[in-house]
Each structure stands twice: as C-alpha cells, then as structure tokens.
Amino acid sequence: MVSLRGLLKISLRHPRPTASALRASAVAPASGSPFINNSQGASAAVAELSDALGTVFDQIDLDGDLNSQINGLLERLDQEASQYGNSQLKDEQYSDWECSPEKAELISMAWHCAREAYETSSGLPNNPARNEKWKLEPGDCIVPSTDGTIKAVSFSRVSSVEKGTDNKDLPVLVVAIRGSASAVDHMVNANYEPRNADNFIDISRLAPENSTTLEAHSGFLNSAKALDKTVSQRINMYIRENASNYSHVLFTGHSAGGAVASLLFLRYLAQESLF
C-alpha cells in the first residue's frame, strides 16, 4: 500500500503534464457540437483544479508533519469558503408568497415526478400514482443520450380525482428532467463557464427595462437546446388533446435537471405566443 507521503513524492517527481494536456484540449478548435463543447469545458475545469491542487502540493514539506500541514491547508480553505454565501434575492426584490393547499399539492406532484425521472433511462414510463386528491398518468419518456447532452425526461399528466374541484392548476402536464446520474452527466456539469443565452431566451420580453444580456451555464444551456424541439412537440400535443381546458404545464427536475428545466421554462415564458 502506498502511503500519502509516497504519493506526494511521486507527484513531485512527475510535474503536472495532465493540466497542460487538458488545457490544450480545452482550446482545440470548436466544432459546434454540444458534446465537443462539453468535453472542452470539462477539460478546462479539470485543468484549473489540477493547477490548484499542484499549488497546494508545492506548499507541503514532505519532511515535516503531514497531518498538521494538511489540517492547516483545510483551515485556510474553510476561511476562503466562508467569504461566499448562497445566491439569494434581497427582500425588496420579491413579493411575499403564501403556499395554499392547492400549491402544496402541486409541489408534491413536482417532487414525485422529479424523483421518478431517475427511472426513465430505460425509456419505460413511470408507474401511475394516486392519492385522495389527484391521479398521475405517466406518458412517454425521452431516453438520455450517450454523450450526456440530452437528459432523461418524463411527461406525466395529473388531474383531479373528482371533477369540479377548486384546484385551478389541474389538469397539468408535468415535464420532469433528470439530474446527474452518470459520468457523462458530470462532464456536462463541469462545463460551467457562462455563455450568452440571448439566442435561446429573449430576456427583453421578461425584463424590458433590463438591457443586459443573459448568460447561462454552458453545459446546461447545451442540454436545454438539445431538448427544446422534442419538449415543444410534447407540449403541443398535450395542448391539442386538452383543447377544451386551459392547459397548464409544470417544469420540474432535481439538481442539474432543475437547472435545465428552468432554462426551458424561461424560453417558453419569453415567447410572444406560447405554441
């Protein structure tokens, strides 16, 4: 078994070619392919991490007390991290929201579908679900692509158990997008550099007073663009079949799936005429 001290000595004897190679691959000519873009973005992120780890290793004295040195480095890292907080809106930037029983039911449906989206990789629809107020009928699914760009998506229709109920949010089509579940999903996640999303989301319709451009996580933006056509077709189909009622569509997803779902929601929200 190789000790920690032995591993550090090996890393010092072999300088960091990995970061250089990854950085070179990250600046290779772009082909326009989402997979190439994701792999280049992930390479750049790993190269950055490799450089940071190399800098840390350079500061370690192999003849000293490794435990105390590593603990010291962890404390410094903790101090750096403490300078950052979670992104949040100021109180004056949003209005108060009260969760009615109907909204709570809707959140429950979204949670159920987001969880079940992890079972859609096989292309088989999820199992139907039901409680005393609503029933869920699973529809077809989108199978994830091997390169991770297209994420697994499930389409479920939720309606009231009893007709004539007061829940105006039903019936609803729930579009649930799966989060990270494979190695290639994490490659998409690592392609984190912000990229202009103006050609996908018309921010001027959402915030006319704001003239700034909209940027989004590159990997998630690639996924949203890859899903756009198919998701639009499913929504159109639902609207046609549900022509006698006002059509509701709910986007949901866990983790990275929630990020992609948010981008798709903003895209459709910004369109002048929805379908």
Automatic annotation (TrEMBL):
It comes from the Eukaryota. It catalyses: a monoacylglycerol + H2O = glycerol + a fatty acid + H(+); a diacylglycerol + H2O = a monoacylglycerol + a fatty acid + H(+). One of its GO terms (biological process) is lipid metabolic process. Residues 174-271 form the Fungal lipase-type domain. Pfam families: Lipase_3. InterPro entries: AB_hydrolase_fold, Fungal_lipase-type, Sec_MonoDiacylglyc_Lipase. Belongs to the AB hydrolase superfamily. Lipase family. Class 3 subfamily. This is DNA, SC020. It comes from Aspergillus oryzae (strain ATCC 42149 / RIB 40).
